[in-house]
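Why does residue order matter? Because the sequence determines the fold. Keep that principle in mind as you read this record.
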Amino acid sequence: MNHVKFFNALRSSSSVLFGSSLTTPQVLGVNALLDAGNDLPLHHIANVLAQVHHETGGGMYPVKETVLPNHTDKLPSDAEVRRRLEAAWSSGRLRQVGVKTPYWRGGAFGRGQIQITHEKNYAKFGITNYSDALKLDVSARIAVEGMRDGMFTGKKLSDYDFPSALNNPPRTNPRRIVNGPDGTDDKIRAMHFAFVWALEAGGWGETENWLSKLINTIMGFFKGVQK
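Structure:
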């Protein structure tokens, strides 16, 4: 893929994603996802990018749970994250959104571009040192494998007929690959198509298409010879 054309498209005034510029962490985060998902079809990698854009507040870089887009400290200490979560637990706010156990007390709070929580979920991805989920290559692998293989919610990319599935009602919308109904389906749909446009501008998948055509041509030639 032509990364220059791709990133120029992301910076285009017609893009809804980043405005006219990207920070270095945003570029690194996007590139890590492209590398991890290099064999995904167009709409699958676009949805990975769109979901990560939402999950990171547009930052595209691994973050810890409780970090919000308006926070100046993007990498608070583990102790600070646990303090925030304990406060939310004590106030009852976490129970209101379905949290049943204080999973963060052992350190297994959310980390990554698409955050994983609970010890069992870290184990799914082969992670024993929780901080490893903040490493860019590991985080990107988690995001891609989790969406491709249905490791977040049981729903996976291949369960959906893209792009028409992006118009589905909440129960069957591709946002369910990452999270339950949260009112973000339309937002992620818009970002998905913005990433599709940029990926197409960069020629995502053209090499694969060329190789496929070459293989089919060669196979056709030998079939003709055999006749």
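The radius of gyration is 20 Å.
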